[in-house]
Design brief:
Elements (H helix, E strand, L loop, with lengths): L3 E5 L6 E5 L5 E4 L2 H7 L3 E7 L3 E4 L4 E4 L5 E6 L5 E6 L4 E5 L11 E5 L39
Parallel strand pairs: 3-10
Antiparallel strand pairs: 1-2, 2-5, 3-4, 4-9, 6-7, 7-8, 8-9
Length: 148
């Protein structure tokens, strides 16, 4: 039987289920992720066919760039999802899963754009832009606008 993980936004208007294996948690330090959350994203991902969303009418999708959009609860503002336009997977914010999540940290991406108020000292791999397991638009401009 496939493992099913549950999660929700802060107010409970949006619930989701992710079935099966999830990617390790990747921390994204780009300016968009930092601006949306106040720090950095911590996200896993799942194939769209294995993601079920209840309360999707309470989701707002914001196209923060030409290649991806960010899904958040329109009621409480919780950041929940990041979705590349051409992908068949959806990134899910790790903190939105119920415990125990069983998730494990994998890497840091866009560390060249990280905030200047913290250091990354956990020993995980660090990538100036993206990592092999996290495809993003490599043609993005050299500044960190428009990245996920």
């Amino acid at each position: 039987m496939s493992e099913i993980r549950h999660g929700a936004c802060l107010c409970g208007a949006v619930h989701f289920r992710a079935a099966g294996k999830l990617r390790g948690v990747v921390y994204c330090h780009c300016s968009q992720c930092r601006r949306q959350t106040g720090h950095h994203y911590a996200a896993t991902d799942v194939e769209d066919a294995r993601l079920t969303i209840e309360g999707a009418e309470n989701l707002t999708w914001y196209a923060a760039s030409d290649f991806a959009r960010r899904g958040f609860c329109r009621i409480c503002g919780s950041a929940l999802f990041w979705k590349r336009n051409d992908a068949d997977v959806t990134s899910i914010m790790a903190g939105s899963f119920d415990r125990p999540s069983g998730l494990k940290a994998e890497a840091h991406i866009f560390v060249a754009d990280k905030g200047d108020y913290y250091e990354i000292t956990d020993g995980l791999p660090q990538y100036a832009r993206s990592s092999p397991s996290v495809p993003v638009a490599e043609e993005a401009p050299e500044n960190d606008e428009g990245r996920a």
